[in-house]
Amino acid sequence: MVDDLFYEGNTDHSVSSEDEDTLVRSCSNLSVSFGYHCNSYQSFPLENDEHDTSPQMRFETNAMTKSRNGSFTCLSGAAISANFTLANTNICKGLIGEEILPELDSPNSFRKIVSSPSMSRLDLLSTSQGSPASTESSIFEISKNLWRSSAPTTVSSNFLTGTEVKMAGGAAGEDRVQAVCSEKNGWLICGIYDGFNGRDAADFLAVTLYDNIVYYLYLLECRIKQQDGLCSSSEDSLNGVKSELTLAMEIAENEDVKLSESFRSGVLNCLTSAVEQAENDFLCMVEQDMDDRPDLVSVGSCVLVVLLQGTDLCILNLGDSRAVLASMPYAEMDTVKATQLTEIHSLENPLEYQKLLADHPNDSKVVMGNKVKGKLKVTRAFGVGYLKQKKFNDALMGILRVRNLCSPPYVYTNPHTLSHKVMEDDLFVVLGSDGLFDFFSNDEVVQLVYQFMHDNPTGDPAKYLIEQVVHKAAKEAALTAEQLMRIPVGSRRKYHDDVTVIVIILGNARRTLYRSEDKMETGRGSMKKTSLVCWVLLSLRDAFA
User: Fold this and answer.
1) Omega of the bond prior to 152 within 30 degrees of 0, cis?
2) Which PANTHER family does the record associate with it (predicted)?
3) What is the reported pTM?
4) Which of 61, 332, 438, 498 is the most exposed place for a label (fewest CB within 10 A)?
């Protein structure tokens, strides 16, 4: 692994020279900026083309490498603030903001994590205060605490509890970004949490969601092993039976054997259960603290989670953050196709709008001022209890309270999930909060990244997208980029939102090779320009040799 992978590349061809220095300096305003490059590559022999006699082609072919587990080659993340927000103050009696987040946050580099003790500390706090959690939640916590006490030592092969796991992430305004990877086993989990009305919900997700995902994946592997007759009890599972997840990782090294569809479905269910549990835990905490902080009932967050293992990409989203896949079909070399892998859960989506109206036929004021009950544009979100339960709305006073909350919930928590099998055409995935897509379409985003990575093989695509947002926001406001960046956070929200971006360069190098004879001009011994990841890998080899 190489931290701080990316360097400033050649100057951006789409930015005027007078703004170049300003945009480079704007990087100092980034709240989060990290990169990761997989070290574990092996040679990938190319089937020789009978028409290929080019020494350059042979050199580039020999230099081509692939990630050992075919998951991802490298990634970068970046985020910039526009909203003014107080750091997490006293939710959970200050435990999250004062103790847990400082241990987890690593905004500029990846660092090793051995275990995830955050939720266990929150559980102890909840128990000591007499949490109003349901019996089901109590059983969940007892089960998870039992797992925590044994799993990290007895199932050391599990990628989620092994010492090779690394994490990066941090906050930007009301947004949070998080990336957790195990290069050894070829796993990657990324999350973007776009908070609103404060950052408390996004902070809570950063502290708890990964831990929940770990636990539910552990339950999944136990169920699979029991169904296959590999163990007779969960205790046996913890005492030396090889992890199903580890078996899956080893299987993934063989391209002819794929994870079963049922296992992928199980992973999606794990992501859904993890979010549902985080929601229940958060609303319990809000109920405990709302006498002191009634504003917590209005705090919420969009959720975007991506889990990548081998060629299996599992996605969950709530709200309007997006995951966009860039691919290059065989027949259309140098034409990048954008495919949105997420749903947009806001009133801008006609399906969401109609569902909301249909669910509340006796409420004539479901949508007011293009917002749900006049308060919120998104139709699905984490938190935001006052639009889900009457008791939370009653905690607010005056104009803050929603009038005529006839038939809650008005905002939903059921996520969109999707499993995608990474194909040879697939190049990279862009994850972004809605602040990115306020300025660029899906097609524009993938084209920007593709062209940038071609022109700047060792550049940072996530940081570049942030720079493009700054440049376009300034242009639309008839300002220079320098003038825009001088506007204080808070006031700058008038021009752009918090923006969070992760770019994942997918790891199957086979798809980057030449894919048709007509892309070679063999008579003259020359070729057209190579595809994206070929350039990336060659340049990384030279940069880190």
Assistant:
1) no
2) PROTEIN PHOSPHATASE 1G (PTHR13832:SF803), PROTEIN PHOSPHATASE 2C (PTHR13832)
3) 0.80
4) 332
Return the CATH number at 209. 3.60.40.10
Task: Check residue 93 and give left, alpha or beta (phi > 0: left; psi -120 to 50: alpha).
Answer: left
Q: State the amino acid at position 485 in one-letter form.
A: M
Chain segment 156-205, per-residue pLDDT in tens: 334 455 557 899 999 999 999 999 998 777 789 999 999 999 999 999 99
Q: Does residue 156 lie in a domain region?
A: no
Inside any domain, residue 192 = yes
Establish if 237 belongs to a structural domain: no
Count of domains for the chain: 1
Domain span at residue 309?
69-111+164-227+256-343+421-515
Q: Is residue 141 part of a domain?
A: no
Q: Which helix (H) or strand (E) holds 326?
A: strand 322-327
Cβ proximity of 171 and 96 under 8 Å = no
d(Cα 415, Cα 271) in Å, to the nearest integer?
9
Using alpha carbons only, how large is the chain's radius of gyration in Å?
A: 24
Q: Which residues contact 206 (CB under 8 A, 6 or more apart)?
A: 101, 104, 169, 171, 176, 178, 191, 193
Residue 65 — pLDDT band, cuts 50, 70, 90?
very low
pLDDT digit string (tens) for 305-354? 999 988 899 999 999 999 999 999 876 777 899 999 999 999 999 999 99
